[in-house]
């Protein structure tokens, strides 16, 4: 059995890179920032608590499911693009959080602007849409939209926090992500004949 050293090193390098990015996400992005604020005077309804928990679950489940799919497909270029998008989104989000210091609607801390949950969700959804098309992008954007709405409903963010988070997340992925079809030179060619219109496609492996 022969091993392509260059290919092995490239694969190992990419895996280590994404592991480091995931650790950064878990430490700085996947876990909400909590502090001892004036929450005793704020009363949550059961619905608000439930929606808040569901957004915490969704903001972790969506990137993890995306990462699993990318690894299964061995899309190493997409892995790098997604990682760069995530790091950019997290960096911009936390710089603004600590610079603006806006108080959350529930008074738990002063890290409301922008919404990290929404930024993470829209960065992931936009990455899926840009890289793999709307077939994956549409359901991912539905989840991301729910997360944004849920953060407002659960009194974790103001509406402008959510809009800013969505813009940062989507913008980061738009900057770094390229369609997979371009990598493989996917080309559609229409042609006309007396009996109708035909489409042909070529795909380079």
Helix tally equals 7
Query: Strand order within the widest sheet?
Result: 1-2
CATH fold topology: Vanadium-containing Chloroperoxidase, domain 1
Helix content: 55-70%
Judging from the principal axes of the Cα atoms, what is the shape? globular
- Provide the number of structural domains: 1
Q: How much of the sequence is in beta strands?
A: 5-15%
Q: Report the major sheet.
A: 2 strands, antiparallel
**What is the average of the pLDDT values?**
80
> Architecture, CATH level 2?
Up-down Bundle
Q: What is the succession of H and E elements?
A: HHHHHHHEE
Judged by helices, strands and strand pairing, the structural class is: mainly alpha
The end-to-end span amounts to 24 Å
The CATH first-level class comes to Mainly Alpha
Uncertain regions spanning at least 5 consecutive residues = 26-37
Radius of gyration, taken over Cα atoms and rounded to an integer in Å: 20 Å
Please provide the count of β strands.
2
Q: Could you explain the architecture of this structure?
A:
The chain is mainly α and 205 residues long. The protein has one domain (5-30, 42-202): Vanadium-containing Chloroperoxidase, domain 1 (Up-down Bundle). The chain contains 7 helices and 2 strands, in the order αααααααββ. It has helices at 5-30, 46-72, 76-100, 116-132, 134-153, 159-176, 180-183, and strands at 187-193, 196-202. It has a two-stranded antiparallel sheet. A hairpin with a 2-residue loop joins strand 1 and strand 2 (196-202). Residues 26-37 have low confidence and may be disordered.
